[in-house]
Amino acid sequence: MKYDFDKIINRADTNCVKYDLRQQVFGNPDVLPMWVADMDFETPDFVREAVMRRAEHPVYGYHFKDEAYFEAIRKWILRHHHWNVHKDWMSFVPGVVCGFNMAVLAFTKPGDEIIIQPPVYPPFHHAVSSHGRKLVYNTLVDRGDGYELNFDQLVEQTKTAKMLILCNPHNPVGRCWTQNELLFLGEICMKNKVLVISDEIHCDLVLPGYRHHPFAALDKEFAQHHP
Predict the structure, then answer these.
(1) Where in the sequence is the domain holding 88, given as residue range(s)?
(2) What does DSSP say about strands 195-199 and 163-167: parallel, antiparallel, or unpaired?
(3) Which stretches does DSSP call E strand in the chain?
(4) Do 56 and 147 have their domain in common?
């Protein structure tokens, strides 16, 4: 389908966080809102049509996820990221933020140290501090032309930490971590029995010339590691 990426959509007065909260957040309703991950592109016709077809049925009851749901996910990951995921590996969560909060609660205890790599998406901080865990900052290194992982610091921090929440690709610095970077990070964490929770929500937003590497696909031990 031909898509018009230049079409401007008026989103005012639709209760959208991005535009309708500008006065509340910034004290200025005219500021250019680039503070939240919310696209201004139209939803494609085929997606809207599918939603409307479902909405035409007058009963919105409980539903289950059929084979087509899991097969679509599996084929997408295999085609775009070269990883053969099995259905019994998949669990539904209502959002990625819910997912890593649930992981923190399931696999750590109050007082445990959890590593994050700032500057990073603010809910990473909240997922640790809101549940009585201790934040440990493995701060990325700004080289001027891009950010790098701080492996020297990570080696020391993983000696006492229980978990690392990885952002891959990284939000907001825009790094698509290389295979070698992720392998080295994984080896450090495996050696010290640190569980890696990898947020890969931006895996399909990668510029030409770069490739996303799913962390769990790099090594069987990474995928099967648990506390």
Answers:
(1) 64-92
(2) parallel
(3) 113-116, 134-137, 141-142, 147-148, 163-167, 195-199
(4) no
pTM of the predicted model, to two decimals?
0.90
- Whether residues 82 and 120 share a domain: the answer is no
Kindly report, residue by residue over 67-78, the tens digit of the pLDDT: 999 999 999 999
SS3 20: helix
Q: To 10 degrees, what angle do helices 96-107 and 122-129 make?
A: 30
Is the same domain home to 25 and 111?
Answer: no
Amino acid residing at 211: R
What's the pLDDT tens digit per position in 163-174? 999 999 999 999
Q: List, as one string, the DSSP characters of 21-79.
A: THHHHHS-TTS---SS----SPPPHHHHHHHHHHHTSS--------HHHHHHHHHHHHH
How far is it, in rounded angstroms, from Cα 157 to Cα 135? 11
R_g of the chain computed on alpha carbons? 20
CA–CA–CA angle 121, 126, 128 (5° rounding): 110
Cis peptide before 58 (omega within 30 of 0): no
| Sign of the alpha-carbon dihedral angle for 28, 32, 34, 38 | positive
State whether 124 and 138 are in the same domain: yes
Same domain, 114 and 193: yes
In angstroms, rounded to a whole number, what is the distance separating the alpha carbons of residues 198 and 149? Answer: 15
